[in-house]
């Protein structure tokens, strides 16, 4: 299956800071999503982004499928951004890495 | 429209028992997938159903099974529960065949504890 590597594994931010999360994957994919897992466990869909760049408020994402990576940008971070972020490329199933745990401190 | 609904939210079972978890996808969605999340193994794919047929299966023992009904609701069953089955079970639905430009939407999950 597709191997997914996310970096950094942990990120501690001061409220208001900007950050970039990276996702490398082992095979060419036609589909990729970014999720945020909240403290209650639910995976919230952030972006469906097989290629190109998308923005949603303070978040934006870029996928370069030919180079097998995707980036998630968080700007002006807030405490509610805390949680685990997963990148999930998919073929017949979502492939998850270990995620990036983000802690935003007030 | 309503999201993906999983029931129950929490469950405590004893080793050796069996359990059934339910997932109602977003109205109109025909694909339902199940994932297991544990601290040690992370998120792992269990199986996927589309139009009442299991299309793909992950690497789990036969104690894990599932089915999908004509209204697209899905159930998964775990028999002869083991302590290691304690996990968060997540269900995801998708509008059409995955890969045709639509993403997955997850439910809130069922947290199963086996004692």
Question: Which sequence of SSEs, written as H and E, runs from N to C of chain B?
Answer: EEEEEEEEEEE
Strands of chain B, count = 11
Q: Roughly how many Å is the radius of gyration of chain B? A: 13 Å
Portion in helices of chain B: under 10%
Report the biggest beta sheet of chain A as strand number plus sense, adding barrel if it closes.
Answer: 5 strands, antiparallel
Distance between the termini of chain A: 39 Å
Strand order of the largest sheet of chain A: 1-3-8-7-6
Low-confidence stretches of chain A: none
**Total DSSP E strands of chain A:** 10
Structural class of chain B: mainly beta
DSSP helical segment count of chain B: 0
Describe this structure in words.
The complex is a heterodimer of chains A (106) and B (115). By secondary structure, chain A is mainly beta. Chain A is 0% helix and 55% strand. In chain A, a hairpin with a 4-residue loop joins strand 7 and strand 8 (69-74). Chain A is globular, with a radius of gyration of 13 Å. The mean pLDDT of chain A is 94. In chain B, the strands form 2 sheets. In chain B, strands 2, 4, 5, 6, 9, 10 and 11 form a 7-stranded mixed β-sheet that branches. Chain B has a 4-stranded antiparallel β-sheet with strand order 1-3-8-7, with no helix packed on it. At the A-B interface, strand 5 of A face strand 4, strand 5, strand 9 and strand 10 of B.
What are its keywords?
heterodimer, A: 106 residues, mainly beta, 5-stranded antiparallel sheet, 5-stranded mixed sheet, B: 115 residues, 7-stranded mixed sheet, 4-stranded antiparallel sheet, 0% helix
